[in-house]
């Protein structure tokens, strides 16, 4: 067995995952904090205001990374859901359901900050255009996944039902992404594309730092939530007793 | 691959394909309704009747804005490079409203050339730049006033 497959199989073992993630966490939180401070300082203090929008353009440093994360986490949730559905890997199921609240919060942040930006820029807090509506649908999908999971007593069954909903909701992701190019919307087309950036470098650097910072927040928060869920589900198992009695860590 | 896992994987793919097909059919059939606004040349094309509520989007024609001496009444022209429509609006315009700016007005046609709006929104484009850069571009004679909504047609 090569080293990669060995790593995948080890990750599937709760005690190994618990120990490994415990060692990883200080580093991921640390990187997140450094990037957060750097990104916020550069974005909110150092970066210039926009020539048209003025200071309200700074909302972008929170809004854009949050919107990215809302979609990325959903995609990852669906992938972990499929791994759970097809291979019945318990760790994938637990990580899937642990991702849902993080994704829901990023979606809510993207909607709220977008709304606060829309008032001074567009002249309205909300419009029912294709981009805004599909992002709102994403929030409801997250809440649906969380709710469906909570409706079952048995965690493995709950995960399978939630994974199915996560899978069906994937169809919304391309709709969100392409809504601004398929239809005319109030929301502008993307500033960052594979062809380049329509954002001046002085604003682009803090934005990219924040994008990476949010990814580290997701990793850290996901590990914490997954560990808690493992302890909770396995509370009668010996490895948990071993850890809780303080034998190591 | 184990036969049961293979069967489950096929099941997952069938669900994905089914949902994707259903969503595409729905979106294609809703094409017209998914459009947030119509452009001035669409009015002629779609034969939009006088008195029906819709959103009109395009660029504010430079030099067309005129304000009433008393009150908030403002009149301007929206164009899409082909046709233009006169818009009347009695209210507060968004801060980003200016000549050359992309705007979306909600209201109805009063006659075939005049649109009465009860809400005007400014459309922002994807460009972000510091004021100095915008000034420098302007000095070089480059057009920096946004032209949003035109890129994707």
List the helices and strands and how they pair.
The complex is a heterodimer of chains A (249) and B (153).
Chain A: H1 3-11, H2 14-46, H3 60-87, H4 90-121, H5 130-150, H6 155-169, H7 172-182, E1 192-193, E2 196-197, H8 201-233, H9 238-244
Antiparallel strand pairs in A: 1-2
Chain B: H1 3-29, H2 31-34, H3 40-46, E1 53-60, E2 66-67, E3 73-79, E4 84-90, E5 102-109, E6 114-122, H4 131-139
Parallel strand pairs in B: 4-6
Antiparallel strand pairs in B: 1-3, 1-5, 2-3, 3-4, 5-6
What is the gist of this entry?
The complex is a heterodimer of chains A (249) and B (153). Chain A is an all-alpha fold and 249 residues long.
What would your notes on this structure say?
The complex is a heterodimer of chains A (249) and B (153). By secondary structure, chain A is mostly helical. Chain A has one domain. Chain A has 9 helices and 2 strands, in the order αααααααββαα. Chain A has helices at residues 3-11, 14-46, 60-87, 90-121, 130-150, 155-169, 172-182, 201-233, 238-244; strands at 192-193, 196-197. Chain A has a two-stranded antiparallel sheet. The mean pLDDT of chain A is 93. Chain B has helices at residues 3-29, 31-34, 40-46, 131-139; strands at residues 53-60, 66-67, 73-79, 84-90, 102-109, 114-122. Chain B has a 5-stranded mixed barrel with strand order 1-3-4-6-5. The termini of chain B are far apart. Chain B is elongated and about 80 Å long. Chain B has 2 domains: 1-34; 37-139, Beta Barrel (OB fold (Dihydrolipoamide Acetyltransferase, E2P)). Chain B is an alpha+beta fold and 153 residues long. Chains A and B meet through helix 3, helix 6 and helix 7 of A and helix 1, strand 6 and helix 4 of B.
């Amino acid at each position: 067995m090569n080293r990669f497959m060995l790593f995948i199989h080890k990750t599937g073992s709760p005690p190994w995952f618990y120990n490994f993630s415990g060692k990883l966490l200080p580093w991921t939180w640390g990187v997140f904090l450094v990037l957060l401070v750097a990104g916020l300082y550069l974005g909110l203090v150092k970066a210039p205001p926009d020539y048209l929008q003025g200071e309200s353009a700074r909302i972008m440093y929170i809004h854009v990374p949050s919107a990215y994360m809302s979609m990325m986490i959903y995609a990852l949730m669906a992938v972990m859901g499929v791994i759970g559905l097809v291979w019945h890997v318990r760790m994938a199921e637990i990580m899937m359901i642990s991702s849902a609240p993080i994704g829901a919060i990023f979606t809510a942040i993207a909607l709220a900050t977008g709304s606060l930006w829309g008032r001074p820029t567009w002249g309205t807090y909300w419009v029912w255009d294709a981009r805004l509506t599909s992002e709102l649908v994403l929030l409801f999908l997250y809440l649906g996944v969380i709710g469906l999971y909570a409706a079952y007593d048995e965690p493995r069954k709950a995960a399978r039902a939630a994974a199915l909903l996560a899978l069906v909701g994937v169809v919304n992701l391309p709709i969100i992404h392409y809504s601004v190019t398929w239809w005319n919307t109030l929301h502008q087309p993307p500033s960052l594309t594979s062809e380049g950036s329509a954002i001046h470098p002085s604003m682009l650097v803090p934005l990219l730092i924040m994008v990476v910072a949010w990814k580290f927040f997701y990793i850290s928060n996901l590990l914490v939530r997954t560990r808690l869920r493992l302890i909770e589900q396995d509370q009668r198992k010996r490895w948990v007793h071993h850890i809780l009695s303080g034998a190591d860590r | 691959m184990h036969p049961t896992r293979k069967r489950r994987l096929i099941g997952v793919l069938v669900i994905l394909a089914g949902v994707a097909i259903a969503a595409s059919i729905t979106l294609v059939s809703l094409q017209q309704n998914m459009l947030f606004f119509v452009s001035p040349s669409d009015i002629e094309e779609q034969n939009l009747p006088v008195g029906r509520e819709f959103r009109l989007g395009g660029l504010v024609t430079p030099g067309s804005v005129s304000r009433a001496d008393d009150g908030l009444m403002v009149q301007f022209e929206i164009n899409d490079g082909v046709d233009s429509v006169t818009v009347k609006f009695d209210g507060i315009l968004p801060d980003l409203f200016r000549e050359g700016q992309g705007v979306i007005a909600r209201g109805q046609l009063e006659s075939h050339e005049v649109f009465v709006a009860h809400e005007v929104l400014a459309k922002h484009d994807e460009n972000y730049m510091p004021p100095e850069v915008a000034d420098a571009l302007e000095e070089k004679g480059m057009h920096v006033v946004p032209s949003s909504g035109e890129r994707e047609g």
